[in-house]
Design a protein that fits this description.
Ribosomal Protein L9, domain 1; Ribosomal Protein L9, domain 2; 2 domains; 34% helix
Length: 148
């Protein structure tokens, strides 16, 4: 077994910056060539410590920006229209792409993949849709669907 320092999170092995013991073949054939780890030398320990500090600072800055943007999105209420039948069901559906376009029209650019919509909206009425801005920050947007 040899010791390596992880540069990135590796599933079922550890998080970035951790010192782990792995088999030599796994380190030599996978972790080291893919840049996922360094050998555990004193120089590399200092290097990883510097990368960890930079990653922490960058993560904190991104979180602060996401919290600011979440406070902006908290007050946003969208109204979308669609053709609906007698029972209040839409003939089509409102998707994450539709919500992203409506947010962009109001000046809030959000990637559609960040919109947490388990299933497309297929009924009229008020819906609350989550937007994942950061792994630790989530905002909610109120969507009102009306008939054309």
């Amino acid at each position: 077994m040899i010791e390596v320092i992880l540069r990135e999170d590796v599933t079922s092995l550890g998080k970035a910056g951790e010192l782990v013991r792995v088999k030599p073949g796994y380190a030599r054939n996978y972790l080291l060539p893919h840049g996922l780890a360094f050998e555990a030398t004193e120089g590399n320990k200092k290097r990883i410590a510097g990368e960890t500090r930079a990653r922490t600072a960058r993560n904190q800055a991104e979180r602060t920006e996401a919290e600011r943007f979440a406070s902006e999105l908290g007050g946003v209420a969208l109204t979308l229209t669609g053709k609906a039948g007698e029972e209040g069901k839409l003939f089509g559906s409102i998707t994450a792409q539709d919500i992203a376009e409506a947010l962009a029209a109001e000046g809030h650019k959000v990637d559609r993949r960040r919109i947490e919509l388990e299933h497309p909206i297929k009924t009229l009425g008020h819906h609350t849709v989550g937007v994942r801005l950061h792994p630790e920050v989530r905002a909610e947007v109120h969507v009102s669907v009306t008939a054309e």
